[in-house]
Amino acid sequence: MNKFTEDDLREELKTKEYEYGFYTDVESDTFPVGLNEDVVRAISKKKEEPEWMTEWRLEAFRVWQKMEEPDWANVHYEKPDFQNISYYSAPNNKPKYDSIDDVDPELLDTFKRLGISLDEQKKLAGVAVDVVMDSVSVTTTFKKSLAEKGIIFCPISEAIREHPELVKKYLGTVVPTSDNFYAALNSAVFSDGSFCYIPKGVRCPMELSTYFRINQAGTGQFERTLVVADESSYVSYLEGCTAPSRDENQLHAAVVELIALDDAEIKYSTVQNWYPGNAEGKGGVFNFVTKRGLCEDRAKISWTQVETGSAVTWKYPSCILKGDYSIGEFYSIAVTNNFQQADTGTKMIHLGKNTKSTIISKGISAGNSQNSYRGLVQINSRAENARNFSQCDSLLMGNECGAHTFPYIEAKNKSAIVEHEATTSKIGEDQLFYCNQRGIDTEKAIALIVNGFSKEVLNKLPMEFAVEAQKLLEISLEGSVG
Amino acid sequence: MELKDKLISSFFAFEEQVDVNNDVHQLRTKAIKDFETIGFPRKKEEDWKYTSLNSILKEDYSLFPKKESAIDYNDVKKYFIHDIDTYCIVFIDGIYSSQLSNTTHDKIDACLMSSALHSPKYKAIIDNYFDKITPKDSGLNALNTAFSKEGAFINIPKNTMADRPIQILNFSTGSEAALMVQPRNLIVVGENSHVQIIERHQSLTENPVLTNSVTEIYAEKRAQLDYYKIQNDKGSASLIDSTYVEQKQESFCSVHTFSFGGKLVRNNLQFFQRGERIDSTMKGITITEGKQHIDHNTLVHHIEPNCESHQDYKGIYGDKSTGVFNGKVLVEKEAQKTNAFQSNNNILVSDKATINSKPQLEIFADDVKCSHGCTIGQLDEEAMFYLKTRGIPAKEARALLMYAFANNVLDSVKIPEIKQRINKLIANKLNVNLGFDL
C-alpha cells in the first residue's frame, strides 16, 4: 500500500503554496502613499460624497491622529507604517454593468479560480453578490428582485448618494468614529463597502453576500459595512474572503455595523481566508476588524465566523443588547497554522432586561501559531434576568503552538446567570488510532475529528458556506500533524 | 505629602533602625529605588483593572508606631485557634510580642524574621531564599522588601514533621490614628517535611490599617504544606497579601483563603512549579457585605511536566460589595501532561453588588488537560421552597444553601478546628444561628 507518512505531509505543507495566491492584472487607479487631511478630502471627492460626509471623515481623521495603536492584544507583529500605505485603489475600468456579461472577463476569471463563479452562484444558490474588489463595488446582482421587496442592497458609496437620510441616521451609531484606533482610521478613509436596509416586516428572500478581496499591491483595504434591519425584518448576510499571495504585509481594517430594530433578526456569517503568510511566517494579511451590532427590543443578532486566514487577526464581533428580551449569539472557529496569530472573541453587553447571549468559540492551533480567545460578558445593573452561556474549547496540534483564553466576566445584577467554561486538549491518540485501524489515514482522521470538534459552529453557517468552510478547515490544517 | 513620597523619605529613618551592613540591606536599597520608579499599581495595569488603591492610599499612615503596645491575652483569645496546641508568632502593630508568642527552635524553627536576618546560623537560608521568587515588577513587593525587617521565619529541616500547627497573628491596636505595616514572612519546608500554618491579620479598633504583606514559601522535594489564611478583619482595615510559593518535585502545597472581612483585600497568590509530579491547590471562600472589595489574583505557572493544579474559589457578594477573581494558568511548552483545573463560582445576593471574573488559560503545551469554569448565579428557588415547606425560615434556608454552596472548599481543610472556626465565621457573616454546628 502506498503509505503517506507524516514526513510526506510536512513536506507537502512546506511546498504547498497558497492556493488562491494569484494576482489579477487589472489597471488600478491608485492614490500616492501617505495620509493627511488632503487625502481624506480627495477620497471623499472621488466618491462624489456630500459635504456632511467629508466633514464626518475629517472629524474621524482628527480623532485618529490623537490615538495610539492598541497593543493589549496577545499578538506580536511589526506595526504597519500608516504613511506608507495607499488609501485608495479602484479598478480603473468601472462602467456600471447591466448584466454580468459586461464585467471585465479577467475579473470574472478571478472569481472562477476562487470557485465563486458569479453566474453559477446566480443560478444555483440564488445569492445576490455585491462583489468588492479592491474597495470598489463592481457589480451587484439580483438588485431588481430585492428592490421589489423594498430592500436596499448596494455599495455604501452609492447609499451615501442615494439614501443619505438612512446612512446619516445610522452610520457611526454603533461603532463611533472615536471607538478605537482602527475604527477611526476606517471612518476617515473607508473606500467602499456594502449597505443593506431591510424595511419593516420584510423577510429577505435570499442570503445577501459580499466577497472581499485584496488585490492591488500595497493598498490597504478599508471596508465599511452597514446593515439596518427595520422592525420585524430578517436578513442573513454572508461575507467571504480570499486574497492573493503577497510578500509584504497588507493591512485590513474593516468596520461592520449592524442595527437590529425591534423584533428584527440579523444573521451575519463570515468565512475569512486571507493570505496567512508562508510557512516561515513571512507576509500575510493584518486583519484588524471592528464588528458590532445593536439590538433593540426582542431583536436578535447572530455572528458566525470561520477564521482560517490572515497573519494577524484582531477581531471581536460584539453585540450590544440594549432592548429588553434581545438575543446575541457568537459562534466562532478560529484556525491558526504556521506562524499565524489570532486574538479573537466577542463582547456581549447586556443592558436590557431578560437579555440572552450565547458564545461558542472553537480555537484550533497548529504549527507555531498562537490562538487566543478574548471575550467580555458584561451584565449591567439594569439588566434583570440576563443570561449568558459561554463555551471556549481549544485544540492544540503540535508542541510549538499556544492556546490562550482571556474571558472577562462582569456582573452587576443579582438576577444574572452567567456560565463560562473552557477546555484545552489535543487530539486523542486513541481517537487517531481508532480511525487508522478502520483504514482512515491520519490526515483524513484529523479532518474528521476537527470537523466533529467544530460541528456546533459549522452547523450555524448557511448551507453553501458550511461546505466551503469544512473544506477550508481541512486545507488550513493539512500536514499539521506531528 | 503623598504616601509614596512619605515612604521614600522615611526610608532614611528606617535605615537607622536596621543593620545596614547586612547583605539584605543591599536588597532593601535596591528595592526602594525600584519602588520609586514603579510606584503603587494603577488601574491602567491589567492586573489592577478592577481594583483601585486610591481610597486606601490617601490616609495619612504612620509607618513606625511610636510606642510598643501590650494587649491582654484574654482580649484577643478569640482570634487564636486556641483549642489546639500550636506554636504562635504574634505581632502587635508590626512588632513582635514575646508575651503572646510561643516560638520554638526545637527540631523546627518557628521564630522571627528579625532574628533570622541577624543570626549567622540562618545566613545560608536567608542567602538562598530571601527575596528570590517575588516578582520584581511589582511596586508593592519592592516596597515590602525595602522595609523588610520583621515577620515570621519558619524553617522545617529535612525529614521533619512539625509536631503542631504554627499560627502567625498580626494585631493592630489602633494606638496610631492610621497605621501601615509591612510584614515579611519566609517559610522553607525541607525535603520530606510537613507543616501546617495559619495566618491572620486583625485590627482591634476602627482606626484604619493598611497591611502590605509578602510571604515567600519554598517547598522542597516531597514536602507538604497546608496554609490557611483567615481574613476577617474590621471594616476599616485593608490588606494586600502577596504569597509566592515555589515547589520542587513531588511536593504538595495547598493554600486556603477565607475572606470575610476588611475594607479592601487583595490576595496575590502565585505558584511556581519547578519539578515534576507537583500538586498545587488553592481554594477560597469569599463572603462580603457593605462596601467591601475583595480581589483574588492567582497564578499557577506550570513549568515542568506531569504536574497538577486545582483552583476552586467560591464567592457570595452582598450589599454594595465588589468581588474580583483573576486567575491565570500558564502552561509552558515543556510542561506536557499537565492537568490544570480552575473553577470560580459566584452568587450575587444584592442588586448593588458586582463581580468581575477573569479566568485565564495560557497554554503552550499540547498534551495537557486544562479547563476552567466560571459561573454567576443565584440560589435555587426550588431548593429554597423545599426548605421553607419543611418549616425552615427564609433567612436560615438561604444561609443553609449558601453554606452548601461554599462547603466543598472546606472538604480539603485538614485541621478540624479550622473547619469549625470557618463554619462559625460563615454563620456569623450570614447572620444566622442554625442551632447546630455546621
From TrEMBL, chain A:
Residues 51-204 form the SUF system FeS cluster assembly SufBD N-terminal domain. It comes from the Bacteria. Coiled coil: none annotated. Residues 212-453 form the SUF system FeS cluster assembly SufBD core domain. It holds the Pfam family SufBD_N. NCBIfam families: PRK11814.1, sufB. Belongs to the iron-sulfur cluster assembly SufBD family. This is Fe-S cluster assembly protein SufB.
Automatic annotation (TrEMBL), chain B:
It comes from the Bacteria. InterPro entries: Fe-S_cluster_assembly_SufBD, SUF_FeS_clus_asmbl_SufBD_core, SUF_FeS_clus_asmbl_SufBD_sf, SUF_FeS_clus_asmbl_SufD, SufBD_N. Pfam families: SUFBD_core (PF01458), SufBD_N (PF19295). Residues 177-405 form the SUF system FeS cluster assembly SufBD core domain. Residues 22-168 form the SUF system FeS cluster assembly SufBD N-terminal domain. Coiled coil: none annotated. Belongs to the iron-sulfur cluster assembly SufBD family. This is Fe-S cluster assembly protein SufD.
